[in-house]
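Need tokens for this chain, all 191 residues.
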Amino acid sequence: MAHKFKYGFKAEAERYTEEFRGELNLEPHAPLCPRKLADHLEVPIFGIKTNSCLPPEIPNYWATHPDDPFSGLIISDGSYKEIHHNDFSHPRRQNSDLAHELAHIILGHNMDVPVKENGERAYDRNIEEEAKWFGATLLLPKKATVFMVMNSYSRPQIESEYQVSWQLYQYRVGVTDAVRASKNIRRKNVA
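Here are the structure tokens for all 191 residues:
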């Protein structure tokens, strides 16, 4: 079942995305590097490969268990926030993970996530769905998906220029209705 967002959330995500691109001197449809956005927002990013604060067993584990689901997390101390992520993942996956974590920060989600008695993290479906949508929108806003459809971008172009997975591109084209929007733009330009 599809998640029900609060009224205006998706439009707000598109506006934020365009605003951040403007602050980074990017066109509204241009690729956005999550690392550059994090730098702009003064959010440090740390990978686990060479993090000297971690015991060697931790990076060794992630290097040998690529299918384990750890992607990233935010460490927060009041207004200070930093992202720690699995930099053993594919670079396109890392971009999605970083955009997701940045979405939590931008949206002001409470990062003091309680832990269950069994040690597992308590999962708040609402904030995770918001971060999933917002993170994907940061990487591929509607203006970008329409631009790529109108310009017949190939899979290799999308993956190399936007540094996103083909699956994320297909998902965003569907949810933004980019094909129909592109047809409407073409129709208006002919008239």
